[in-house]
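Board work, copied verbatim: AraC-type DNA-binding protein
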Amino acid sequence: MDSKTNQPTSSDWVVRSALPSGVERIEAWFAGHGYDPHRHDTYSIGRTLAGVQSFNYKGSLCHGVPGNTLVLHPDELHDGMAGTNAGFRYRMAYVDPALIQNILGGQPLPFISGGLSNDPRLYRASEAFVQALDHPLEMLEEQDALYDLAMALHAVAGKPPGRKRLDYRAAERARAFIMEHLHSSITLEMLEQASGRERWSLSRDFRALYGTSPYRFVTLRRLDYFRSLALNGFTLVDASLAAGFHDQSHMTRHFTRSYGVSPLRWLARLRPAC
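↓ predict structure ↓
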């Protein structure tokens, strides 16, 4: 990033895997500043390939280097930058917490303290998702890898502090309702009726099980749809409206908070997919 113009350097790039998968995978290189503070509702599971990948997370400046595993919890604020003048290269997989819950079956999402781990169990379990992007993941391979990842996260995080019992089935009914009515105006009252769970208890359980609030979940799913439309040639205005935002500026505010860059900068960094 050029500090005077606040624009990405010509050498900054991001490649998204175009292979069929339920997990978004990228590889990227940045000369300096990568992302402003932002938060998204997926696990960010990554590996630094070269250089030092620095980021602010939970009140500390962390440094990812080759050999350790980055594990950023859903909806936790973080940024990204080079820790040295040499820049940094990394791969990242964005794992939907619902995929982890399919395996854990209603336990609170595992939290890895500090956002970095040297535990060999996590290193091995994340290998399938941070290998070269041109390596296709067969469906059974991906499902096995998700199981291994969920088990490793659970083991390394340890048992969370005491918490009231969570109603996983009600939260999952609410999540399914959201996915079916994504382009409608959704309220907590509607989710209460769909789930059969009192609204505030549902909201609490939803956060614990899926890592974010129902409202943020809706917003991020609309941003997912916006990104798919923008990548397929829709204008930002048309993609914003089709994804359920009031206008382009409404979408841009949410996009920047969720990804740390503006939609235009995000598109400019992308290289052709594998």
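DSSP finds ten helices and eleven strands in the chain.
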